[in-house]
Each structure stands twice: as C-alpha cells, then as structure tokens.
TrEMBL record:
Residues 227-414 form the VWFA domain. PANTHER family: INTEGRIN ALPHA, INTEGRIN ALPHA-2. It is found in: Membrane. GO terms for molecular function: integrin binding; metal ion binding. One of its GO terms (biological process) is cell-matrix adhesion. It comes from Oncorhynchus tshawytscha (Chinook salmon). This is Integrin subunit alpha 2. It is a single-pass type I membrane protein. Keywords: Calcium, Cell adhesion, Disulfide bond, Glycoprotein, Integrin, Membrane, Metal-binding, Receptor, Repeat, Signal, Transmembrane, Transmembrane helix. Residues 813-847 are annotated as: Disordered. The gene is LOC112257296. The keyword rRNA-binding does not apply.
Length: 847
C-alpha cells in the first residue's frame, strides 16, 4: 500500500525549484515462534526540512516530500482490510456438524494448558441428543477435539432426570474462578409421574474438566407430598371388573409413588366402605401396583357414595394411617350410579371443602347406557362432588373399558394441582433456566435467563450457591407489555457498571414483537426495579437477542452496550441484521447509531454473535468482533471494529470471510470469543464457531515505524557551487534519512526489513521532463534494503543540484527563498489494505 505525506509551499513568483523525496518501503517479517505471526505496520513520518536558495532575484521554492509505503507480508490475510487479526496459519477444529459442534465457543486457560471449549448441544444425534462440551487443545497438532462426556454426570440425584434432548452446551460461560467454566442444558427435564417439566440445569466444571455439583434453580417438587384416597364403587352394577383394575394400575403408574412424594390408599364401597390398603401400606410403586392388581370386587346392592366419601375424609387422612402433615389431600371418587344417600351430600362435601381436600369425580356411564337410563342426574351428582372448575376435576366415560383412556390425563391433572396452582398458567415448570448466563461482579452471583418462565414471558434468575432469587412475573410485567406470553425475557443477560453500581440487563427479543432491552437494579426488598428500557424498531428483528457491554477506555465504567438484532430485514427483504450502539450513563441507555455491516443485498444475520476484545490493535482501547454467519451464501463473515476513546468506530477495520480460510466452512461467525491471549504474545486472539467447526485466528503484533529526513545545510545558496559533477561545478546539499521502530507488544518478533527508494523530483510535471537533481550515482533514484529495530538507523546522501543559469537570469529585488518549517509532527499510518499498491494523500498543508 502507498501512503503519501506531502509538505507543499506555494510559489511566490513564476520561478520555482521543486525537490522531492519519495520513499517506497516493502515490509517482511521473521516469525520467531511456532505460531504464524506477522506484524502489522504503523508508519509515522517526521521531517526536519529547511532548504533555502539564495538568489539575486526573488523566486520561490516549492519543496515537496512524498513518502509512499508498500507492504507485503508472508502471512497476509486474503479478504482482510486491515491488520488486527491474522488468518494465515489459522487452526481449524472439526467434529460432527449434525451435533451442532461450534454452536458456542469459549476460551479457557488452566494449569493443563490453553483450550477452546466448544458446545455441541445435539451431541448424541439420532439417539438421545443430550448435548456435550468438547475441549480442543490449542498447542496440539491434532485438529480434533476431545468430548468431556458431561451429559450423564450433569443431573439432580433427588428427582427423576430426563437428560434426553437437554441441549447441554447450548450455554457456556465463565465463572468467578478463571480456570473453570459453567455449562447449561436449558432443555433438561424432570419427570413427575407421566408429567415432564423443563426447568433447565447447569453445572460448574472444574479445572480438571470434571463436573461439580449440578443445580436447577427452578426444580419442581412434583406437586409436593400428596396423599391420595381413591374411593372406588364396587357395587353389583360395575361390570366388568377387570377394566377397573387396569385403570387403577395405569393411574398408579403415572403417579410419583414414594414416602416423600405421593402415597395412595384405596377404599372400596357398595353399602359400606372398607380399606383395601392404607397410605402407608406400601412404599414403592411396584408393590402398590401389585396390591391393586389383586383387589376383588366388593359387590353390593346399594351405592352409598357420600357415606364412603365421609369415611375417607375421617379415616384415610389420619396420621395413624400414614397421612403426613402438610401433604396435599386428594380424593378420587369413581362410581357408575346415583347414590342412595344423596341427602348427605351438602354436609359431606362442605366438610371436604373446609379441610381443603381436592376431589376428582369420575362417572362411569356404562350401566346407564346399557339399560337406556338418562345420565343427566348421575352427571350432575358427580359434578357436585368434584372440585371446581369442574372441567378440570370431572370426567365421564361411556363404559368401564374407557376408564383406561383417562388414566393418563387424570394422573397429569393430579400432579398439576401443586405444580401450577390448581390448573392455572405455567409458572417455572417450563422455564428453561440457563438459556443464557452471565457472571456478575459479585463473586458468587450468576445471572441466568429463563425464557420459558410464566408461559414464555420469561424472567431472570439471580443464582448463588446459597440461594436462588427467581423474580416473579409481576417484576417485569408492566414494562414487557406481554399480551401474548412470548417476550422471552432472559434470552440474553449481562451487566453494566458506572463505577459504583452494577446494573443488570436482560434482552426480551419478542417483547411487543419488536424486542426490548431492560435495565434494572435490585431494591432493598430484593426485587427488581426497572431503571430504563430500549425497544427495537422492527417486528421480528429479534432486537435484544444478543447483548455485549464494552468498557472502551478500560476505566472500569461501561461506555457502550451493543445490542444485536440479527433478523433485521432491510428494504430488499434481506435479513442483513443490525447492531445498535447504546451509550450508558447511570443506568440510562441512549441511542448512538449502528455499526456498518454487510451489503444490503445479502442475507447475513449480522449481530448473531458479538464479542468484546480487550485490545486487538494495542492502542489502549477495547475492540469488538461481530459475526454474520449467513453472509457470503451462508459461509459466514466476521467484522472487527476498533474502540476510540469512549466510543466505537462504526466502520469496520477488518472483514474476514470464512470461505477464504476454508472453502468448506459454513455459518462462520455463529459464535465468538476473543477474551484471551492463547499464544503468549500478549495480544488477545479470536475464536470463531462455525457449523461443525471452530476456527482459531491469531492476532498480529504491530510495528510502528518512524521515518525522519533532515537536510544540511538548511539554506543553500545556488550561486555557491562547491561540488563538481562530470567536471562541472554545481550546488549541493546533504540529506539524511532515519528509521526507527517501536513494537506492540514491547517484545518484538524481530527487526522490520524494509526496502526504500529515494527519488528526486518524484512528482515531475508534464512541462518538465528531466530531474533537476541527482545522487552520487548520477541517478535521481536510490534503493536500499535495511533492517529497522528500536534503535534508530540513519543513511546520509549527497544531492547535486542541476539548476542552470537560465533559472535565475531574470532578477528581482529579493535574493533568497523563505525556508519551510524545520520539523513536522509525527503522523500515524492508518490501517492499510494489504496486497494493494495505491497512493493516498493523508496530510496536506499549504503555506
């Protein structure tokens, strides 16, 4: 690349002398380590240039110095616009794509080495899709990774675990202990009888890659301890009896039988009621099912249903018969006919209400249908027995054989009594805690997103090993405006810091359909207080699905919150995606524009992943990497954006195409992490997830090269001819060109090898076809190879002026030319586009 600095002095008269110095530099580097590193070049130019020609007439001096720089590096990056991240020598790890290997990626350093942790949430595909996490050794020669086999160890011992389809590895996050990490399986389920709940599960993993104790803050209690009395009609009209026994067996199979969970007693009645067994007669499911299978029919000519219900109320729930304090009381009444003691109904049912006994009523209509009897009165009586609402607690079946069909539903509704508050809306049963996670500044406190809570309105859980604060639906209900129960609050979580207060931030990408970001603190009562919120501006854009806080100047105060809306659709109906910049002051978010991303002609999902980087280009400011996994026909692209004081430059400094690294890459940029230095050069490196692959990119060191030119004498009298060229006396002067380099990081990877050209009259005008100066080699061009380090290296040259007498034969009153300034400030060289030679005027000053 060529870049020119020019110092130009305007002519005062029609006579002028133009001397120009052009330097063309080529850069190549020598990597000292195993890793394919290359330096990027920053160039600054300092000139001390004062040249004056004393003449007998007044003329002007137009003196220009142009410096052109061309770069070439053996490890240059195809498709790169700048120098922050290298691509040559990128390491690609591969595992089965059907397992969604690469969905998440996280860098880790421990006593064993440096690793990439890669989430594979569908690990076990075609069988159980439990999910898992892989570790990939950075320094290893292999491009494969080792599965940690966490899926069978992440469980809760006190409940019935369902690890199938739990998507372990969907979430990976750092913990307060830097050599550990946490993995979550938000679709982990627990089984309560035949009911499945999805509270989610997480576990910290030790430095030895062993899972520590697992936790599930929204763990369900399977309805809590429950004592159930089944009051079963065994009168003569019940026929046949085996379907009734089959019903009992299937119902019991669907219950979570155990001393600490559900206990069941069975009372059979006709004229009089009797116990078949008590609540404490059997401790296991198998034993109680075996006992039920051998129950004979009692038989009798009367159906005294309310006498049996009263008997169950008074006897079944006694402590001596196995009832437990605090256990929910449930009664299931099954009969095929109207009672002969209906006069007891109001008193008996009233006492059941007082003692909070939940009642299910099941009317078997077989006898009535077989004998063509109107079922209206039977149904009305059984509805009066059942708790309200009757549509949940009353059943009727056409025959004894049909009892089997309702057994499963009855079991589910029994469990639902405690699980969701007697048939109300879902609370935390389907919460999927761990869908997102973030370690706060508080040592032991982790934010966990629970997108499925409260009918998928979502919430946030603040977890510590001592307790879990699960915020109720009312905490965010007003701000979400969640009419359709689908905000998905907790899809992303993070924190912001103003130096004294930590603010909690949660994304709700479907809130009000456009998405929303909510900022809150915890008040003195331990509940959230919403401070501010920002809404998206397009329906379905998934605004808030990705959050990334950034402390640009590293002063401990959050400067920017980046908010991804990866499904934002442009006017061409392409899902380009969008990343919003929000400034942050005392909990208040303010719009600061957007990042400039992909072409509007492409589907890209720009902002699907965003990662803060401590400092890529070593300028003291934090940077950002953004993924666009659908760009370039689903091959994927990542973008690098550099920090600047307290802001982020909206134009990317680098764009890296996955297809240039590996033509087989797909969805490159679906996940990102750039928190750590993985090759010991003190610069953070970038890890990129793709479909079935993870790519490790190595960041480049920087060489800041300073060029300086001086002239002696600083005034040249062109009438004084002290030098001889080809037997002819001419004016002359000396110029010295100096180079030095500083390195970022300070430990250099080697000297910078430069080739420079010095050219006199580099900018020859069309009216002038010959140079007016030459070097000692009788040419206007010199070329030299040098090696520049931190110590300044200088070369001196003698320049001969070939100005003829004709130039100053016309005199005026002045006899000298004013000198230009004696020095120039150092100018930085902006990011070059590699592999291209092109001049650019960076700085132009006219006097």
């Amino acid at each position: 690349m060529k870049v020119c600095w020019r110092v130009c002095y305007l002519q005062w008269w029609d006579l002028s002398l133009s001397l120009s110095l052009s330097l063309s530099l080529s850069l190549f580097l020598f990597p000292p380590s195993l890793f394919p590193l290359s330096l990027s070049l920053l160039l600054s130019l300092s000139l001390s240039l004062s040249l004056s020609l004393s003449l007998s007439l007044s003329l002007s001096l137009s003196l220009s110095l142009s410096l052109s720089l061309s770069l070439s590096a053996g490890w240059n990056m195809p498709g790169s616009l700048s120098f922050n991240v290298g691509t040559a020598g990128a390491k690609v790890f591969s595992e089965p794509s059907v397992e969604e290997f690469g969905y998440t990626v996280q860098q880790l350093k421990n006593h064993q080495g440096k690793w990439l942790l890669v989430g594979s949430p569908w690990s076990g595909y075609n069988q159980d899709r439990k999910g898992d996490v892989y570790k990939c050794e950075i320094r290893g020669a292999s491009s494969g990774c080792q599965r940690l086999n966490l899926q069978n160890s992440v469980s809760i011992s006190t409940v019935s675990n369902v690890n199938v389809n739990m998507s372990l590895g969907l979430t990976l996050t750092r913990t307060a202990t830097e050599d550990m990490f946490m993995a979550c399986g938000p679709l982990w389920a627990q089984k309560c009888g035949s009911q499945y709940y999805y509270p989610g599960i997480c576990a910290e993993v030790s430095p030895l890659f062993n899972p520590l104790s697992s936790f599930s803050p929204a763990l369900q209690t399977c309805g809590g301890p429950m004592d159930i009395a089944i009051v079963l009609d065994g009168s003569n009209s019940i026929y046949p009896w085996p379907p009734v026994v089959a019903f009992l067996k299937k119902l019991l199979e669907n219950l979570d039988i155990g001393p600490d969970n559900t206990q069941v007693s069975i009372i059979q009645y006709a004229v009089d009621p009797d116990f078949e067994f008590y609540l404490n007669s059997y401790k296991t499911k198998d034993s109680i099912i075996a006992a039920a299978a051998n129950i004979p029919q009692k038989l009798g000519l009367q159906t005294n249903t309310f006498r049996a219900i009263e008997f169950a109320r008074r006897q079944a729930f006694l402590p001596t018969n196995g009832a437990r304090p605090g256990a929910s009381k449930v009664m299931v009444v099954v009969t095929d006919g109207e009672s002969h003691d209906n006069g007891l109904k109001d008193d008996v049912i009233g006492k059941c209400e007082q003692e909070k006994i939940t009642r299910f009523g099941i009317a078997v209509l077989g006898y009535y249908i077989r004998n063509d009897i109107d079922t209206k009165n039977l149904i009305a009586e059984m509805k009066s027995i059942a708790s309200t609402p009757t549509d949940r607690y009353f059943f009727n079946v056409s025959a004894e054989e049909a009892l089997l069909e309702i057994a499963g539903t009855l079991g589910d509704r029994i469990f639902n009594i405690e699980g969701t508050g007697k048939g109300g809306d879902f609370q935390m049963e389907m919460s999927q805690v761990g869908f997102s996670a973030h370690q706060t500044n508080k040592q032991n406190m982790m934010m966990l997103g629970a997108v499925g809570a409260y009918g998928w309105s979502g919430t946030v859980v603040h977890y510590t090993p001592q307790k879990s604060d699960i915020f109720p639906k009312t905490a965010f209900e007003n701000i979400l405006e969640d009419r359709n129960h689908s905000s998905l609050l907790g899809y992303s979580v993070t924190t912001l810091n103003d130096g004294s207060t930590e603010y909690y931030v949660a994304g709700a990408p479907r809130s009000n359909h456009t998405g929303q970001v909510i900022v809150y603190i915890i008040n003195s009562k331990g509940q959230p207080t919403v401070i501010d919120s920002q809404k998206g501006d397009q329906i379905g854009s998934y605004y808030g699905s990705v959050l990334c806080p950034l402390d640009v100047d590293k002063d401990g105060v959050s400067d920017i919150l980046l908010v991804g809306a990866p499904m934002f659709m442009n006017e061409q109906k392409k899902e380009t995606g969008k990343v919003y910049l929000l400034s942050f002051t005392k909990g208040i978010l303010s719009d600061q524009g957007i990042l400039r991303g992909p072409s509007p002609a492409d589907n890209a999902r720009f902002g699907m992943s965003i990662s803060a980087v401590p400092d890529l280009n070593m300028d003291g400011y934090s940077d950002v990497v953004v993924g666009a996994p659908l760009e370039d026909n689903n091959r994927g692209v990542i973008y690098v954006f550099n920090g600047d004081k307290k802001k982020l430059r909206t134009q990317c400094s680098q764009r890296i195409l996955g297809s240039k690294l590996d033509p087989a890459l797909k969805y490159f940029g679906r996940s990102l992490d750039a928190n750590s230095d993985l090759n010991d050069d003190t610069i953070p490196d970038v890890s990129v997830g793709a479909y079935g692959k993870v790519v490790q990119l190595w960041s480049r060191g920087l060489a800041v090269v300073t060029a300086r030119a001086t002239f002696n004498p600083d005034k040249v009298n062109i009438l004084s001819k002290t030098c001889r060229v080809s037997g002819r006396l001419v004016s002359c002067f000396n110029t010295t060109v100096c180079f030095s380099a500083t390195f970022r990081p300070k430990i250099p990877v080697g000297p910078v090898a430069l080739r420079y050209n010095l050219t006199l009259d580099a900018d020859l005008q069309s009216s002038r076809v010959t140079s007016r100066g030459q070097f000692s080699n009788s040419e206007r061009v010199l070329q030299k190879d040098i090696r520049v380090s931190t110590r300044e290296l200088c070369d001196a040259y003698e320049v001969f002026s070939l100005i003829s007498k004709r130039l100053y034969s016309e005199s005026t009153t002045n006899d000298y030319v004013r000198s230009p300034p004696s020095h120039r400030k150092t100018q930085p060289f902006f990011q070059p586009k590699r592999g291209v030679t092109k001049s650019r005027n960076i700085d132009k000053i006219n006097h």
